[in-house]
Amino acid sequence: MSARILYAEDELSLGKIVKESLQRRGFEVILESDGGKVLSLFRELRPTVCVLDVMLPNRDGFEIAEDIRALDPEVPILFLTAKTQTADLVKGFTLGGNDYIRKPFSLEELIVRIDNVLRRAEKPAAISPADHIRIGKFRFYTNRQLLAHGDTEQKLSYRESELLRLLYEHRDSLIDRKVILELLWGHDGFFNSRNLDVYIARLRVRLREDDQLEILTIKGKGYRFVLG
What we know:
Blueprint: E1 4-8, H1 12-24, E2 28-32, H2 35-45, E3 49-53, H3 61-71, E4 77-81, H4 86-94, E5 99-102, H5 107-122, E6 133-135, E7 138-141, E8 146-149, E9 152-155, H6 158-169, E10 174-176, H7 177-185, H8 190-206, E11 214-218, E12 222-226
Helix pairs in contact: 2-3, 4-7, 6-8
């Protein structure tokens, strides 16, 4: 069964082009330009993934996402935004967004992002506090801030643990450096930026026993956590 995409876009000319292109790739697409109608469509159609423009008439994408999350905590939500302020990107993640794309975007980028959030949804990151997340050869106990490999255990600091969790939740996707800084440090100042470099280096060392795991630096943008 093809994925059903609920696509909210107020620029109808763009929306129709994107819809037709996605349909040619095998997706089922429901296009809506009025933010006030999106939630009722979600209730009726129960899409596989939601692609929401942030700037919509009547209700914006953030408001819609908050209501969708109240109905369904698992469905992937991807934001499209012309906004470049880090605070807006952080708000999207805080409200439960899984990814975002800055406008203008290429169709290929959109398809890759949709495929990524769908793949991650098949392997949920939500783990009970008593359990662990399997990351390659490692077991990551988030509540204990512990990374285990065989009989070896590594105790993580709070920020190491939160950074690893964030990278894992957005695995195989680019996560903006500024978003990480805002989420983990509260702002993206110079000294916090240097601290982030240190924590990334530490995690790379901690994960080096599994050569299939890579934290890639995307110069000038952020990081991508690749699980092989």
